[in-house]
Amino acid sequence: MVTELEEFKALLDDQYTWPAPYLFKFIVPKEELKTLETLVEGNQITEKPSKHGKYIAVSFTAVCNSSDIVLDMYKKVSTIPGILSL
Predict the structure, then answer these.
(1) Which terminus of the chain faces fewer neighbouring Cβ atoms within 10 Å, N or C?
(2) Per-residue pLDDT tens digits for 15-59
């Protein structure tokens, strides 16, 4: 049985020729922004606050050497309470 993670990895490998730039997008509670910034340090991020300022949309492009690097980033940020990965 193929898991969602394996399907996503296969899709990444089908759509990208590594190394390649990959656009990461997240929505994070405002109070967790510093945690996310620490985890993605070294990447130039773009931030956009929500209408009421409770959440911040964060995006950045990173050159990844493989789909495993992309998956590792998603695993790393998944530890942040309330984060949504887009």
Answers:
(1) N
(2) 999 999 999 999 999 999 999 999 888 889 999 999 998 999 999
| Token representation of residue 54 | 């409770």
Amino acid identity of residue 50, one-letter, is S
Q: In what order do the strands lie in the sheet with 20-29?
A: 46-49, 55-64, 20-29, 84-85
Backbone angles phi, psi at 64, to 5 degrees: -110, 140
Amino acid at 56: I
- The candidate with the shortest Cα–Cα distance to 81, out of 47, 46, 33, 13, is 33
